Amino acid sequence: MEKYKICFREETPKYIQIAKNIKRLIDVGEIIDGEKLPPIRKLSVFLGVNNDTIVNVYKKLQGEGYAFLKMGSGTYAKKRDINKKILRDYSNIFKQITKEKYNEYVDFAEENPCAEFFPVNNFKKVINEVLDRDGVDALSYEETLGYRGLRNNISKYFWNEKIDSDRILIVSGAQQGIDIVSKAIVNVNDNIIVEKPTYSGALSIFKWRRANIFEVDMENGGINIENFEKILKKNNIKCFYTMSYFQNPTGLSYSYEKKKKIIELANKYDFYIIEDDYLSEIKYDKNIDYISFKAIDQWDRVIYIKSFSKIFLPGIRIGYLVMPSKIKDHIENSKINTDISTSSLMQRALDLYIKNGYWKNYISEINNIYKRRYEFMVNTLLSGLGNKVQFIRPGGGFSLYLKIEDFIEKNCIDLFYECKENKVLITPGVFFYKNSICGRKYFKIGFSKTDEERIKKGIEIINSILK
After folding, report:
1. Please, what are the domains in the chain?
2. What digits encode the pLDDT tens for the residues 240-287?
3. 106, 425 in Cβ contact below 8 A?
4. Residue 234 predicted with pLDDT over 70
5. For residue 216, which of 238, 242, 190, 235 has the smallest C-alpha distance?
6. Residue 142 pLDDT > 80, yes or no?
7. 317-351: per-residue pLDDT in tens?
8. Do residues 446 and 251 make contact, with C-beta atoms less than 8 angstroms apart?
């Protein structure tokens, strides 16, 4: 009975406090699924409340799906899949908010550049140039690997021609890239390792493949190498999924030493590294040098994935893979089975956009814009939420990952729903972990869709809720 003990606060009805405590016990596993809850009279005596209070507690738990009643037997705990419900509610927000109503919200959830900063006229020029130059060919299917001109220019401008263009595969964004690689190399019950926490989209793909997922804690400079190698010694690992710079969600980046060590371990223990280059171009700290896993991959162990959607236009779904020679055919076949070919017109347009230097200018411009916004958000957080949350300064990317201080009873799920009611959109931390019990004290806020005035307003609302 001790686990049911609670110190009551005067401002909140007792039945709500008791119900909240029991829900927490169920969520963290201290009350297991199907466990019988104490009889009404016994729990009321233990907590020093009347019977009606416990009756209301059990009714509330049943109404919220945390308990069920067996007639003549009692009330029993019911384990809920918190992630499914909140993920559904989170996704529905963006389906339900119309363009007209969107401006009423402070959007800390999305992580794409504002369309207003994109030089549309330059993009019009390359589209028209492509259509004038290639005519109907610009609208036909490309070869499986993608438009050769784009692959050649990716090799030239991003890899100094050190990567053969025949090892570059054009895909429809990073999410498709992860899916294609997963289908190519991950089978049912294969063992894979991910960072803890990690990108929720990748977690979903690996779960869909019914892989056995091991997590290794992220820390300064990358994952904990000691724990990583312990898993490698005990299990036959197929691949390790990682984000090398401004990791989603933590914002942490890998040190050169850890990257080099992980590649050595990949060769020693025979596994592949799936490197998701998330937002390496968006950096505000000049001391951060960009060196990808792939750039120092001497054993051809890295499958490099890059999306242009986050730093181009989100509606234009284009990215690419760099494929290791041994599994090149498997990945190509997986791409064919997925969608045959990525948009030919968009590939050719992006090719000219890069070739004409527009890409480089655009990246430079948005770095300057978002650096100011990043610094404003950091300073606003320090002044407005400094005693209620902890966070690191990533030095790049479009978001910050916040931990709610332990003395504050709210978790990220409560915060998400209360923020939503106040027209502030955040991303709950539970999305980024294999187990929904984890991450309940974390949430992510992005600043790519919010100007300084809205950032200030949103932080003020979060502050009032966390009080």
Report:
1. 2-77 (1.10.10.10), 82-110+365-466 (3.90.1150.10), 120-360 (3.40.640.10)
2. 999 999 999 999 999 999 999 999 999 999 999 999 998 899 999 988
3. yes
4. yes
5. 242
6. no
7. 899 999 999 999 999 999 988 876 778 888 999 99
8. no
- Please tell me the pTM assigned to this model: 0.83
Q: Which two tokens stand for residue 351?
A: 């090719």
The per-residue pLDDT for range 374-418, each reduced to its tens digit, is: 999 999 999 999 899 999 999 999 999 999 998 898 899 899 999
Structure-block tokens of residue 203: 């977690």
Task: Give the neighbor-by-neighbor strand order of the sheet with 191-196.
Answer: 168-171, 319-322, 302-307, 272-277, 237-242, 191-196, 212-219, 222-223
243 is written with which tokens?
A: 């984000």
- Determine phi and psi for 59, rounding to 5 degrees: -65, -40
Query: Can you tell me the distance from the alpha carbon of 287 to that of 32, in angstroms, rounded to the nearest whole number?
Result: 49
For residue 2, give the amino acid letter. E
Tokens of 328: 């090149």
Query: Rounded to whole angstroms, how far apart are CA atoms 392 and 217?
Result: 15
